[in-house]
Amino acid sequence: MADRIDGRVAAVLAALRAEASATVLAEMGPRYGLVVDKAMGVAMKRMQTIAKPLRPDHALAQALWETGWYEARMVACMADDPRQVTPEQMDRWRVDFDNWGIVDTVCFKLFDQVSGAAVMIPRWCGLNDEFGRRAGFALMACMALHGTGEEADLLAGLKLIEACATDERNFVKKSVNWALRAIGGTETPTLRAEARAVAGRLAASSDKTARWNGKDALRAFAKADKGKDQ
Fold first, then answer.
1. Check: CATH 3.40.50 for 86-230?
2. Where are the domains of the chain?
3. What distance in Å separates the CA atoms of residue 225 and residue 157, rounded to the nearest whole number?
4. Is the pLDDT of residue 52 over 60?
């Protein structure tokens, strides 16, 4: 079995290397803010194409993640089976989060579909490392966007948003804002109203980061509401 998995991992890595681009690799940091120690330089569209015929394959996903390659980890989260993902795996992978791309993609493509995933939101939002905290708010945003989050969990999430809205670290600030806009964009009246109330309080804050979060969300809400009225 191990030999079979090793062979499949080698095949995926070979497929990724065949799609690698020196230009994509060179632009990852300067253009997209993706600072990665172990990367090949493969465009997202190519990674998605490689991952599609592999899913769902939990064992292969674990083995791909363990390679440490950015692209292999991206394929892993797209190929894994959310029905077999445990909270322990979520925490284990979260420890390896070292750039916004892997954080957001893992949450968007996999973690928000995992049963009981919401318990990770307060745990991760309470972390102090930048990408760990981003993971909490990214998961919150994805669960709101995909309709996998319970109303009570998202209401609790709004309290976390308000509590962490002053965190000026770029990758945290953007994820807090993303989560607030995502919750405010749901079709649930209570969530929409509460998200707008939070945004209003933040917009009036004396803290510049909180104020930016609130004002940006209010603009997004106003634009969305205007679009619905037309």
1. no
2. 1-84, 86-230
3. 22
4. yes
> Based on the number of CB atoms within 10 Å of its own CB, is 147 exposed (0-12), middle (13-18) or buried (19 or more)?
exposed
- Tally of residues, the chain: 230
Q: Comparing C-alpha atoms, which of 187, 217, 183 is closest to residue 200?
A: 217
Alpha helices in the chain (DSSP H): 2-18, 22-32, 44-51, 58-66, 70-79, 87-95, 100-109, 120-125, 130-145, 151-164, 170-184, 189-203, 208-229
- Which pTM value belongs to this model? 0.95
Residue 230 confidence (pLDDT) above 70: no
Distance CA 145, CA 123 (A): 20
pLDDT tens per residue, range 179-221 = 999 999 999 999 999 999 999 999 999 999 999 999 999 999 9
